[in-house]
Amino acid sequence: MSPKGGVGKTLISVMLSLALTRRGIKVGLLDLDITNPTAHMVLGVDIEKTKPVEDEGIIPPSAHGICFMTIAYYSGEEPLPLRGVEIDDVIKEVLTVTSWKELHVLLLDLPPGLSDEALDILKFLKRAKPIVVTTPDALALNSAKKLLKLLQEGGVKPLGVIENMSSNVASAEVKKLCEAYSVDLIGTIPFDSELRLCLGKVDSLLKTRVAKSIEAVAENVLKKIPP
């Protein structure tokens, strides 16, 4: 989660899904950015040729070993002019009708913001453990602080914080933020200017510096979830 766009939530969601899958974990990835889904672009999924199976619910297709669900299977690249309660209703319907079969982990790629839709998901999924994504940028840190405060007030314990686009080591500001809210820093991901050239090419993505850092995140996530 992140209240701020552009911090890399979608990329991290996809690459964490890949890292966990490579460890033999049965992973589901659900892109819940209803109005602007992009996870399929990072995964290189052709949404015109790949579709879910409808059989007592919607069964997501497999993409690189990940059970992957996105509203883009139905909306294509067309924008969905939805607002507020409409988005909330679509999210709940997708969560309700999607049949994941047997999974060890389900990752949700949420839209940016502190909207009711994002917070309602946490209420709807009682066992959900948010991962807060930020960058060293002052604006992103300020947004992350607001989110952590909101989660704390709502009695929701985050799984951890990930610092993205860092300079190889965690910034003092991010460490201070984690200490202030008693949340673990579960990953520090370096900035990689070549990463954009690999989007949609999973084999290339897995060879990046970011992928190596995500491996450590995957290990930390596995330590924090029940077997």
UniProtKB/TrEMBL annotation:
<dbReference type="GO" id="GO:0051539">
    <property type="term" value="F:4 iron, 4 sulfur cluster binding"/>
</dbReference>
<keyword id="KW-0067">ATP-binding</keyword>
<keyword id="KW-0547">Nucleotide-binding</keyword>
<dbReference type="InterPro" id="IPR019591">
    <property type="entry name" value="Mrp/NBP35_ATP-bd"/>
</dbReference>
<dbReference type="GO" id="GO:0046872">
    <property type="term" value="F:metal ion binding"/>
</dbReference>
<dbReference type="InterPro" id="IPR044304">
    <property type="entry name" value="NUBPL-like"/>
</dbReference>
<dbReference type="InterPro" id="IPR027417">
    <property type="entry name" value="P-loop_NTPase"/>
</dbReference>
<protein>
    <submittedName>
        <fullName>ATP-binding protein</fullName>
    </submittedName>
</protein>
<dbReference type="GO" id="GO:0140663">
    <property type="term" value="F:ATP-dependent FeS chaperone activity"/>
</dbReference>
<keyword id="KW-0411">Iron-sulfur</keyword>
<dbReference type="Pfam" id="PF10609">
    <property type="entry name" value="ParA"/>
</dbReference>
<dbReference type="GO" id="GO:0016226">
    <property type="term" value="P:iron-sulfur cluster assembly"/>
</dbReference>
<dbReference type="GO" id="GO:0005524">
    <property type="term" value="F:ATP binding"/>
</dbReference>
<keyword id="KW-0408">Iron</keyword>
<keyword id="KW-0479">Metal-binding</keyword>
<dbReference type="InterPro" id="IPR033756">
    <property type="entry name" value="YlxH/NBP35"/>
</dbReference>
